Amino acid sequence: MSLPPEKASELKKLIHNHLLRMDIHGKIREVLADTVRDGQRSASQSVSEADFLRALQSRGIIDDVMKDLSFPQTNGKLEPAAKPDTHFAEKEITHLKKSNINPSRRYLCLKVLGGKAFLEHLQEPEHLPGQVCSTFTLYLHFRNQRFRSKPVPCACEPSLEEGFLLELHRDGVDYGLKNSLLLTPTTLVSSYFLDWRTVLSSPSGKTCFAIELMGVGSECKVPAGVLTVSLELCPPLTETLSPDVVSTQQSLERNRTAEKERLFLVYAKQWWREFLEIRPSHQSKMVKIFAQDENGVNRPVCSYVRVLRAGRLLESPRQAARFVSLMAQEKAPVVGGGGKQEQWCTLLAFLCRGKGDCEDHATLLCSLLLGFGLDAYVCVGTKAKAVPHTWVLTRGYDGIITFWESMTAHRYLHQTIDPDAPPLSPQPNPSSPYRTVGCVFNHQTFLANCQPSDAVERCVFDFQNPSRWKAMSEEALKSVCAPGSTTSLPPVPPLCAPSLDAAAASNHLELEMRFLISEHRKDHELATVWDDHLSYLLSSALSTYELERCTGVSCGSEEFQDALRRAMADGHTFKGFPILFLHRNARRAFATCLRSSFCQEIVGCRGDSVRLAVRVRVFVYPENACAVWLMLACKYRSVL
């Protein structure tokens, strides 16, 4: 019986997934290890393929494989029991769940009916079945509700067809619906703010229209594509509004927003002139009042910070800092030369991408620390070699100043150097990597550094002293930065609980690492024997490493060292290599490990009674941010 090429590819993928679920590689390794351990063959005698198949059959492994692998017959043709996706490979697809509709509430049903004119993908080649390809994913935020569509292959006319049921709350009004279109791997394509109130004037309670998505950053004026969407109220209104009423209300809100922004701009210019009159040198200080978001809109920097509470997802400020540090760093792309592209991301865009620049990390960390009740501010300044940088500052109730590096979760205690102290008096050594600070801000405060020197080591962070810090009017900031003050202000999305199974992800990645190490040693004509007990013991060490990153306190290493000594026989040597990753790509991780000479010694270990061990621990945080700890180890008998 012959199969067409696409069916053959599907069949191969089905068999591969079945073998992976059975951990067939682990069972084969056990048979091989037992053969070597029992001394059934000498070192000079090779094991033939037929001998190895007989060994597998005697263990019943082949029978187990065939027993669970079923192919139901459909119309006389061989069909796999569960047809796999043939266009894209996405292991963490969020399946839509049926929602329980409360008849006492009203809902907004938003349907995406397709996309077109994504001209950047006009020449996208046709993907073969089972081939991994780039995909579009649509993210939506409406009040405290967040949704994610299934990924679809990138194309000029992508088949984006999804439905979302949004609950309309009675305790407030949210005029906009924020959505971001993302291109795997997590490249932001467009960010759009949709006003849904046009459906209020539809007699049928339904409306359908096309929205033009613009690019981001330097391409914010270039169309990225078009989405066709429909809106429907469930249940429909008993009395619809006049289209003139809706359009008039929208016009009034736009005019009110424009007037508030104009008045704030006039105030900011006057404030800046007053700041420059204090000292001419203030012109060179890093005082940033406005920042451009992904849509090319200039917004006050205070609007990027909000009081963000994580509920049960994060338990402490230090755990929040750890979570933010696991978001990857990526600078805004620049076409051609010219240096860094100026772009701060809205919170939703940053969370959906899972990566951003130091400004995005600092504003998110400051928002979370404010949610935990700390007096937190974002600092704008420079670090070594005059590189622009942002970080977070907290002021303790006792006046202690602590710097938080949002990229690494490191904390630094600030101690000011007294320039008027006698020459021989002891002075504190700078403990932080920061060199200058031009301004600090949070959701309701903006302060510019007007001290004679902007060097961090000489700064006094006494924000109530107007001779050291020039403050903006809180009322002026509130008029454009407070929640609900303007319709152009993006809403604050809640954090999403992790959907990733940490144990399953750890096991899967560990199996892949074992396979890669075995193949690597095989290429160097080395046998591989795994010590499962030693691998298990490494778990406590990896847990200790992550706990130390979260809390800054090291504990539990004594138990690991004691267990390790008990597991080591006399005359044996142990070597271990721990390393941290922010991704779950086994091949990338293994290639990174091999760049270390110490890791190469472990992977390529030669000697008497060599046993290898590998342990992977995936620690999952909100938004599926992951800290992936990997430890490679070996033990062998020392021979002089």
TrEMBL record:
Residues 500-637 form the Centrosomal protein of 76 kDa C-terminal domain. Keywords: Cytoplasm, Cytoskeleton. It is found in: Cytoplasm, Cytoskeleton, Microtubule organizing center, Centrosome, Centriole. GO terms for cellular component: centriole. Residues 10-69 form the CEP76 N-terminal domain. Residues 100-237 form the CEP76 C2 domain. Residues 342-472 form the CEP76/DRC7 peptidase-like domain. InterPro entries: CEP76, CEP76-C2, CEP76_C, CEP76_N, CEPT76/DRC7_peptidase-like_dom, Papain-like_cys_pep_sf. One of its GO terms (biological process) is regulation of centriole replication. The keyword 4Fe-4S does not apply. Centrosomal protein involved in regulation of centriole duplication. Required to limit centriole duplication to once per cell cycle by preventing centriole reduplication. Belongs to the CEP76 family. This is Centrosomal protein of 76 kDa. It comes from Cynoglossus semilaevis.
